[in-house]
Amino acid sequence: MSHKRTLNYNAIFGLTLTSLTLAGLTASPSYSQSAEDVSDTLDEDVIIVTAQRRAQALSDVPIAITAYDPQTLDTLAVKKTIDLVDTIPNLVGSNNTSLGGANSYFLRGQGQDESFPTFDPAVGTYVDEIFYTRQNGNNINLFDVERLEVLRGPQGTLFGKNTTGGAINVVLRKPGEKLGGFAEVSYGRFNEIVTRGSIDLPASENARFMASGFFVDNDGWLRNPVLDRDLNDRHSWGVRLAADIDISPDINWYAVIDTIDDQGTNITGRDVNLDTGANPADGDYGDVDLVSTSLLPNGLGAVFPGAVSKADYGSQTNSFNVSSNLGIDVGEGTINFIAGYRDVENDFLVNFPLPQFDAFFGRSPDDIFIIDNLGDYEQHSLELKYNADLLQDRLNLTAGLYYLKEDNNSDVASHFASANPSRDRIIDNTTRNQAAYVQGDLKLGDTLTVTGGLRYTDEKKVFEISDNRPVGNITDLTTANMVALGIPTEQREKVWTPRAAVTFEPNTNSMFYLSATRGFRSGGWNARVNNANALIPFSSEFVWSYEAGTRLNIGPAIDLYLTGFHLDVSNLQVNTSLGGGQFGIGNAGSMKNTGLEAEVFLRPTDALRVYGALGLQDARYEPDVLELAACQALPSNSSFGAFDANCNIATVKHAPSAQLTLGSSYRLDFDGVSITPRGSMRVVSDQVTTSLNRGPADSFALFNAGIDFGFMDDALTISAECANCGDKRYLVTTFGNQDTYFNRPGTWTIRLRYNFGGRKN
After folding, report:
1. Which of 152, 312, 422, 463 is the most buried (most CB within 10 A)?
2. How would residue 568 be classed by pLDDT, with cut points 50, 70 and 90?
């Protein structure tokens, strides 16, 4: 796809030229505080966050937020964004079924099962303030980050659409002021080899550059005895270039270019010890062999003679990203021009085993249902953001204008026990999103602050589809047939998403807040169906979130954060299986969720750090009367996700009632040597993993552990660690009661890292 590369280089040139032109036209005296400047004025243990689109101490933010620095990420064994599901209160998820580079998150019961271009996520991902519109490629390697923030609850005012569940905000490390960097190599289970490195290259006091890269290769953990090979292997590499330039004392330009190639699948296997082919919902990997008998790795023709594949077996994601942030200090504030470009090509040929069709088709069930997909997802975004401290610092103001353009193209075929696809279609869908936002924190005296915010969004979506194998009638998947059937091909949404909060700070060590926030998730089209009359749209989802929380600093050694919340979701989007490899979304009335989240950070000594988190929730569907009547009119329910097969109200999926995380590290210093043992534990209660009350999963506990040996003032570190040390196996999702997907088995790793020059972490 050479034409896409041309677009990428044009994007680089355009962003660079725009930023430099703006820098030449605008200048003003003064200098406002960046995150680094704020950090310099606080204790070294204080974490700075940008949850309100400006730099603040974590303890001062009236939002339910978890923030990790690199040391905490190591303690909790968080290497990629998917690992967050084992640490954050009320967050669950997994790699999307079959796609190892795409994460499906559910936060406070809200999420998205599918990585499909007409379905939007409910938990947004941001990297350096640039929104990732698709789940494809959102499993980000976290090897050179400044911090990672997870914002729980809707973030519709400052972050915009598709954050009804929350937002994951990745802040990458900027180039350092001293020459230095790190080099790292590791070896682990499944013959996994990982190399990572980064180097800071300051050209002068005003120009700093950085180059980073990583490489991952492993054999995979799912055995295929028929083909004598392993599946679920991963082969990935990436390169990142960053520049941080002080064009003048008042103008800074930060730009990043990165490219990532990620090949990895998440194919399910079956228990060879069970005659039925079904998988038990829990257990240990050490007690069972999971195998796949798929012929698909040899190509579609190996399964259906004469069939020709669009994509190679597996899932390959190529992403190219450019971001530019031009900051200009203007009197009491800062103006930021933020531009982003992202191009993701995700091609995959994957299978979904359906053991229940064993006898009917008389062949290996692993290759009954197959998806063959070529996808290209492109986005441009522009933002003008203004931050200021006004009225003698009594008013903190954040305001901005935002524009997003998204163009998606998917050439996708579904094979259901046949060489001829059940449908073979090309989908083009576009989004144009324009928004304006403002939020202010006004101090009323020394202890009371009121917050008011509002965002206006005007979004238009357009859907087009063409059928690669038309049968010449009204069932063809074509835009013309949609129009003939009266199905709209455009959606327009104009939405106001406000926020209001009151914060009370009786002293410097405590803060209490109340807040109400609205968010929304865009609607879309059910494009994974077999007939034109089923290409119906679904509507946007809306949520009001009410929170009461406190941030307590109990002396220098204890930080305690508590949040109580109540969600009221309307027009809830729920996925469900329609049969025959078809998956759709319906608006299932409402959902209510009430819960409590607690986090504690303990530092009783300089050597010991302890982290604990608890998430409790009570989520329940409250479908409307019309949907109940429609469900009861069916012989058995297969289309309404908020009910079970008998039209009884179902349990909310991916919403366990309790989650507990504990982690700690202890540093021992000797003459020139440090030893730091670390470990963490995650306990999750029972849950349902898919719609219609299917896929019940038992409670489970995971354990991670490691030890670091530091030499030469920690310039050289040798580490040994294990993730999921007990080789625990638990259910993450299912399409039915038999075709199940599990978490990754336990791994162990030996790692060598060397920091040189000015690099400390």
Report:
1. 152
2. very high
